[in-house]
Amino acid sequence: MTRFLLVLLTATLALAQAPKQALRDEIVAQERAELDSLKTGDMAAFSNLLADNAVFVDSRGTAGKAEVVEHSANVQLHDYSITNVQFVALSAESGLIVYHLEENGTSHGKEFTAKVLVSALWAKRGGKWVCAFSQETAAK
User: May I ask the CATH class of domain 2-138?
Assistant: First the structure.
């Protein structure tokens, strides 16, 4: 009987984790789509992935969607890698990811390589995934 209860508990926990894993995977996919739009130069796709009232934070301070889209028009990623993803589900349709990003590309005509820690809050609004908050901090 104890073995049966252990198997039942393990199966129940696995089923409870499945929606959280699916949500994590969806949000990471949206974050990748945002970065991929900077690789292809598709600023319309990039803009569509940002909430209208989004807030972004980096070493220069805070910025809204319009400022980020305008600044990012002069950025083209050549390559990036996302590692060490951590995830916090906030609701059935929102979550926070934190990860390490290594990227290289061109910004305002100059080549760059960067290592940053990123946190990004994604939410489904009106059936569409949007990034509502993002912060980048330089990493060593």
Answer: alpha beta
